[in-house]
Amino acid sequence: MTVIEAEADRRTGPAGRGQPSEQWGTSGLISQTAALTGRSIRPYLQTGVLVVTFVEPLVMLLMFAGVLKVLGDAPGMPTDMAYIDNLAPAIMIITAVAAGAQAGNGLINDLRNDVITRFHTLPINRFSVLLARSFADGTRALYQLIAVAVLAALFFGFAPPGGIPGVVGSILMSLLVGWSMSWIFIAMAAVLRNGDVLRMITTLMTFPLLFASNAFVPPESMPTWLRVIAQANPISYANDATRSMVAGNITLMELLATLVACLALVCVCAPIAKRSFRVM
Amino acid sequence: MAAILDEISEPWPATGPPEKATEAEHVATPMIEAIEVTKSFGDVAALDGVNVSVPEGSIHGLLGHNGAGKTTLVNIFSTLLEPTAGTARIRGLDVTAEPQKVRRCIGLTGQFASVDEQLSGRDNLVLIARLLGASKRQARTRVDELLELFDLSDAAGRPVSQYSGGMRRRLDIAASLVGSPQVIFLDEPTTGLDPTSRLGVWEIVKRLAKDGVSVLLTTQYLEEADRLCDRITLLSKGRVIAEGTPGELKADVGQRMVTVTLPTQTEVPGAVKALEDSGIRAIPQESGTTISVPVTASADLAAIVRTLNEARTEITELGFSEPTLDDVYLRLTREPTGKSVPA
What we know:
The complex is a heterodimer.
Chain A: H1 3-10, H2 29-41, H3 47-67, H4 83-112, H5 115-120, H6 127-155, H7 163-192, H8 195-211, H9 224-232, H10 234-247, H11 252-276
Helix pairs in contact in A: 2-6, 3-4, 3-6, 4-6, 4-7, 4-8, 4-10, 6-7, 7-8, 7-10, 7-11
Chain B: H1 2-5, H2 23-28, E1 32-41, E2 44-54, E3 59-63, H3 70-77, E4 85-90, E5 93-94, H4 99-103, E6 106-109, H5 121-131, H6 136-149, H7 165-177, E7 183-187, H8 195-210, E8 214-219, H9 222-228, E9 231-236, E10 239-244, H10 246-253, E11 256-261, H11 268-277, E12 283-284, E13 290-295, H12 298-310, E14 317-321, H13 325-333
Parallel strand pairs in B: 3-8, 3-9, 6-7, 7-8
Antiparallel strand pairs in B: 1-2, 1-4, 4-5, 9-10, 11-13, 11-14, 12-13
């Protein structure tokens, strides 16, 4: 006789009349999102994943700071700034956007997991599942952004005029940009529901977005067609904003423009994601 | 954004237990009810005019092959799919019109474990309790209770990825009980389990029903339906082909049989003749030393024994066989052999 069977004889059952859940309070969007974000972050806290999380920005810094240092003298490069002060804010944007792009894959993985099916049978706001997804990847981005700042300061002489407030501001701004962009990928994942297609589109989008920008070289040094793209690229504007932030000379206009652009993106993508999000 | 935020959950649950109904009303409203439910995926009709009604505290079985429509029906009841036509209700609440209210009284244990592999067993349950509005303390109390009840206390801290199939299934069922639902759906709850774990799940299901929970379970195992269910709906290709208690379904198909085994094959013809001479129909089995005799009353059994005694035929074995659900199932779901032209 198993313990279960023995228990059956002397205990009142797990459900039935004296329902404990009836004394439970209300759970709203915020508490649901908080509970679900904790769940989504958990996988990122495994040792192996954490190592990769921190190695990624290190590799990026080494690669770009080392290989591209020669470009510090390229025409059009601001001469009053060390190249690292110019590069680190751009790497912050790249890091945040790359982490945001992961949110789409995260949602696809979630959809493959039957836990999401259970969530859909619970009396919760389903949007909390998507919000949690975006916050989890945002949290991972935050770890990486801090790593970029610390590593750049320790090993590459990153000491911008804007000081610590500028760096913190730049981290927060990158976080906002990456989080807003993550909604593009969450919406695509909810609509496509196909991991292979999503991964291809993600790669196809992120490469030109990140590299055909002013992140590594000034657009002035590019061929005309590429310069046009780079100058129109929203990532270039994000890079400009974080660069101004670390330089300590960001204008209110620039700050507001970034905030409005990010908000607009979320307002377009989040409703699409919400409408398309279903388990079957 | 407004459209997103307006879906914030209503308080859980609105107020206490369902309004006290009189006994008569209580009987009148089924806990789980499908009226002419049809579900089409493109041209394929997964469900075609299905009717099911489950009263409070009863265990109802949906029996059928893969592709019969069992899971589709469960998914409609648990608000994951909307019916193409027809009405599905839980405690009188329409699943399409009031899904959020329905979700408050149901628990689903799907065919595949819906627990998070990377979380511990305890964290899985706590997460659901928190989502349902429990405070940290309330969640801990409820989860400890469930863990103990499902014999998972020792493994509570381990990640689910290290659980055995039986443990995972128990955790899965526990997870669907966190909110103390009045209606539980179990989609093939014992598929892939070893015999001991299967017995464990059966005990859980029986206890749930004893506590007043209404259970709808799908199964491919006839024995399971027979042992557990108060009533059974047989599904084949999206249609209900039979409905009733296990006893009724069995009585439908056929008679009880007495099997008489003789010492040698040479005695079989004589024994058959003796039985038929006394007006008892006897069917010699094609090979071996066994004779089957359809019976209706226990007096028939005495007559068989008396007749064979008088014929001085020795009986080595005397068996009594009930028709099994297998017989029902096979007879009703058997493909027609010839090409039938629909009228």
